[in-house]
Structure formats: C-alpha cells, structure tokens
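Sanity check

After download, print the first record. It should look like this:
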Amino acid sequence: MRNVRHRNLVPVITTCSSDYIRAFVRKYMSNGSLENWLYREARHLNLLQRLTVMLDAAMAIEYLHHRNDTAIVHCDIKPANVLLDEDMVAHVGDFGISKILAVSKSMTQTETLGTLGYIAPEYGSEGIVSASGDVYSYGIMLMEVLTKRRPTYEKMCNENLDLRRWITQSFSGSMMDVVDANIFSEEEQITSKSEMCIASMIELALDCTKEPPECRISMKEVVKRLNKINNTFLETKK
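Expected structure tokens:
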C-alpha cells in the first residue's frame, strides 16, 4: 500500500507491527471524514461540494480497480472512510480489509466482512470479493450523501426497506422529497439544472447498486458519468 499513489488516496506513510497490533500510519486529514460533514449539525456541504467529493472518491476507487499494477478491492467503502484535507479534497482511506486480486482472477473469497448496509449482497451471503462489490458500496454511499440517510436508517428498516428501495419508491413522488434539505442554502434558488444534476446522480447510484454483480457498471463508467454531470452543472453556474 505504500507503493500505491493517487491524489485521492490517503497516503500510507509507514506500518506498525507488534504482537498486539498491526496498523497503517496515514497522513492526517484536517477536515475529518465525509461522515462528520454529513451528520454534524454545524457542518453542511452544498450540492457542488457533494458532487466534487464523490467524484474524488470515484477516481480513487477507479485507480485501485483499473490503473494500479494489481487490482485492489477496498471492501469497506463508506463515508467514514472518505477523508477531507485542508482544501476539501476527498481521499479514500482505511485499507485494513482490502484485498489484492490476482492477475488471473476477477474475484476471490473472504470471511472478513465490511460494514452492514454497504456490503454487496454476494459479499454478505457468500464472501465473494470483486471490484463490483466496491461499486455497490460506492452507490450506497452516493445515495447517502444525497439523502443524508444511513443505509441502516431505522424508519426504512421498520418498513422492511433498504436505501435503494426507499429511494426508488420515493422517486414516484417529488425527487426533492428524498434529498437532504441542507443541500441548498436558504438564499440559493433550486433550479431545473440542479434537479437534473441530482436526478443524474441518483440514477448513477441505482446503476451501481443493481443486485446481480454483472449488471453493475464499472468504476471507469462511474468516473466518466460523474465528470459529465460535474461539467454540465458547472456550466450552469457561470
């Protein structure tokens, strides 16, 4: 992991190992985690910031899957593992349960599970680890960033819904009903272009979280589509 370098990955400085602990020493990120920015009352991210953070995270995961010498599956993509530096640039961190895929294999098996709510169905039931499992987790995180609803949100669980089903059902009404109210400031006007941006991001998240792994898009496609969404949104801000 010390040899893996990308601007959107938390750099691993060194490792510590003893009879009691094995740990990565990582660079300090002064603005904390994406999870804190979503759920602490004093902190708010607007739509452009959320889009930028998710694009940063997507580029990091795409690098691990497709641009590193050997494919690495993170296995625990969630807001707590996306850290923000002093310039609010997002970095994916915490590689404690990451898996390196052999060149000849696109998947492997493990008994080490990620975090409840973010785990792909095939990962939780069979321990199958593949790049598409990270794509699923990323899609859940994207939904959470837009809605400010954890995948273990009590109201959804009581209704026997997961985050994907809850969003899909809510989509039949007003899309803005599912979006975090703090995504726009009181002074900011909600435009049709903003709504189109959110709709495109939710559609992307749904494509990431399809149940059959083979039906999910790749992180290359995620980055491509997010770049397009970002460029379109920035054009409307000029």
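If your output differs, re-run the checksum step. Summary of this record's structure: The helical segments are 34-39, 47-67, 121-126, 131-147, 154-158, 163-170, 192-208, 219-237.
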